[in-house]
């Protein structure tokens, strides 16, 4: 396996990183941000309690040998960076770890240009989502929801243990963490009733999940093998699959979730690379 220098567990940074930080020098994620003084979105990473402006670092020629254009970093989304492929993104992350290493002086005196306290910036939706599939792969979760909808004797459908059950969700309603959501309206079937009623959901639920962000595209009809899969996965985000269970219970037969799922799905602002 190729050695990834950014993951060196002995590496320490000249940036003050709390011991309990989610983002030590070994875990440099990618995101998109803006500041009150500069509302233009641009790409960033995080180290400790700081957001790092990658567009400014590139302008300062700190990534010169990587040959990544300014337009990639001065961007509303990470998609162009993801499209560069795993090798080039890995090289960028290795370079960042090198620049933040306590033994490296290249960037330290310039840090006031590109370091921002995390609580002083706005983190944005990190990726432009063209499509997403939500899988139903947890035995415990599938059993719990199945019991809620069909009773314990029919909790798991016959196909569950044989294929990856999933559905295509609404990409346009994916929002970044912290964005308010609206309680959805829809049809529900009250207990003991024969006809549905229309109104706000009374059974709002959340599902804390892990989502894979696919970075590179494929041609229509081309199958990606399991051996190739990691080459296409850019990273991971936390994913909150908001659910209106009462609406979902009434509408899901026979084609699956619709309005009970499509009103909002929340993702974290940081994409942690698969390398990390």
What does this entry look like structurally?
20% of the residues lie in helices and 24% in strands. With 276 residues, it is of the alpha+beta class. The longest helix is centred in the middle third of the chain and has 15 residues, at 86-100. The chain is elongated and about 70 Å long. The mean pLDDT is 94.
Layout of helices and strands, plus pairs?
Layout: E1 31-35, E2 38-47, E3 50-53, H1 54-59, H2 70-73, H3 79-82, H4 86-100, H5 111-114, E4 115-117, E5 122-123, E6 133-135, H6 139-150, E7 166-168, E8 174-176, E9 185-188, E10 197-200, E11 204-205, E12 208-214, H7 229-232, E13 233-240, E14 243-244, H8 245-251, E15 265-267, E16 272-273
Parallel strand pairs: 8-15
Antiparallel strand pairs: 1-2, 1-5, 2-3, 3-4, 6-7, 9-10, 11-14, 12-13, 13-15, 13-16
How many distinct domains? 2
Arrangement of strands in the largest sheet? 4-3-2-1-5
CATH homologous superfamily identity of the largest domain? Fumarylacetoacetase, N-terminal domain
Q: What is the β-strand count?
A: 16
Query: Describe the biggest sheet?
Result: 5 strands, antiparallel
What portion of residues belong to β-strands? 15-25%
CATH topology of the largest domain: SH3 type barrels
CATH arch. level architecture of the largest domain: Roll
Q: Residue share in helices? A: 10-25%
User: From the structure provided, what is the oligomeric state, counting identical versus distinct chains?
Assistant: single chain
Along the chain, the helix and strand elements come as EEEHHHHHEEEHEEEEEEHEEHEE
Q: Structural class, from helix and strand content? A: alpha+beta
What's the overall average pLDDT, rounded? 94
Instruction: List unreliable stretches of 5+ residues.
Output: none
Distance between the termini: 14 Å
Helical run tally: 8
CATH class of the largest domain: Mainly Beta
């Amino acid at each position: 396996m190729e050695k990834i220098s950014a993951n060196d567990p002995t590496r320490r940074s000249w940036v003050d990183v709390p011991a309990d930080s989610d983002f030590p020098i070994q875990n440099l994620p990618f995101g998109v941000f803006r500041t009150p003084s500069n509302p233009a979105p641009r790409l960033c990473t995080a180290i400790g309690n700081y957001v790092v402006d990658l567009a400014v670092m590139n302008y300062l020629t700190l990534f010169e040998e990587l040959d990544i254009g300014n337009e990639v970093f001065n961007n509303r989304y990470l998609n162009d960076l993801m499209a560069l492929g795993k090798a080039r993104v890995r090289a960028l992350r290795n370079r960042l770890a090198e620049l933040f290493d306590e033994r490296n002086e290249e960037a330290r005196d310039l840090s006031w240009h590109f370091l921002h306290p995390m609580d002083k910036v706005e983190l944005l939706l990190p990726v432009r989502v063209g499509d997403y599939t939500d899988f139903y792969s947890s035995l415990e979760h599938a059993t719990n929801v199945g019991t809620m909808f069909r009773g314990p004797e029919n909790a798991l459908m016959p196909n569950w243990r044989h294929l990856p059950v999933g559905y295509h969700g609404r990409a346009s309603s994916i929002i970044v963490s912290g964005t308010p959501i609206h309680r959805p309206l829809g049809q529900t079937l009250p207990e003991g009733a024969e006809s549905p009623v229309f109104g706000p959901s009374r059974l709002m639920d959340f599902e804390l999940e892990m989502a894979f962000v696919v970075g590179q595209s494929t041609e229509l009809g081309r199958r990606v093998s399991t051996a190739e899969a990691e080459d296409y996965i850019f990273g991971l985000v936390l994913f909150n699959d908001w659910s209106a269970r009462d609406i979902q219970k009434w509408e899901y037969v026979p084609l699956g979730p619709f309005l009970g799922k499509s009103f909002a799905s929340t993702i974290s602002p940081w994409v942690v690379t698969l390398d990390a």
